[in-house]
Specification:
Layout: E1 7-12, H1 16-20, E2 24-35, E3 42-46, E4 59-65, E5 68-72, E6 76-77, E7 81-85, E8 91-97, H2 104-117
Antiparallel strand pairs: 1-2, 2-8, 3-7, 4-5, 4-8, 6-7
């Protein structure tokens, strides 16, 4: 910060469709950041990529505002943060290229789970359905088919992040 000020932020949903049009995907939360005094000049956004494996080379910061999305090259990337300089306020979040290589830890986790539990299929995409608040929904598999494990078995519908 270049002076005193009150910084307010909240997490808002990403527009995955909009990111995808630019060949990007979220790599962390999207923060809506405000500072009435305009004294905030640099952001340190947290990341969990492993620098030694080259995962940080695919990171940039999306600046989401009324006119669209602007992608900002980091000033610096540390072991824990992506650092950018800013001049305006709205939503900022770390993104990475859609075709970036998978995290080696993710691959190792899949290999370990395969050894422990056998072949598993993960659904990485959200289903194309319209959910409504205060309704009960059930995800089920074929009756008596105990080879499929659905997790979590129960979850609360969050209307705030419905589009996310």
């Amino acid at each position: 910060m270049k002076g005193e000020g009150d910084v307010f932020y909240r997490i808002v949903p990403w527009s995955r469709r909009s990111l995808s049009q630019h060949g990007k995907k979220p790599a962390g939360p999207l923060f809506d950041i405000r500072c009435q005094q305009q004294s905030l000049v640099q952001l340190h956004l947290p990341h969990c990529e492993i620098r030694s494996t080259g995962g940080c080379h695919f990171l940039s910061v999306a600046h989401v505002h009324d006119e669209g999305i602007e992608f900002i090259r980091p000033e610096k990337i540390t072991e824990a943060h992506v650092i950018i300089n800013i001049t305006g306020f709205s939503a900022f979040g770390i993104v990475k290229d859609e075709d970036s290589p998978p995290d080696p830890e993710h691959c190792n986790l899949k290999r370990t789970r395969k050894k422990l539990f056998g072949l598993e299929t993960f659904i990485d995409d959200v289903p194309n359905c319209k959910l409504q608040p205060n309704q009960l929904y059930t995800l089920s598999t074929c009756p008596g088919h105990n080879l499929v494990l659905v997790q979590p078995t129960e979850a609360e519908f969050d209307a705030e992040s419905y589009n996310n």
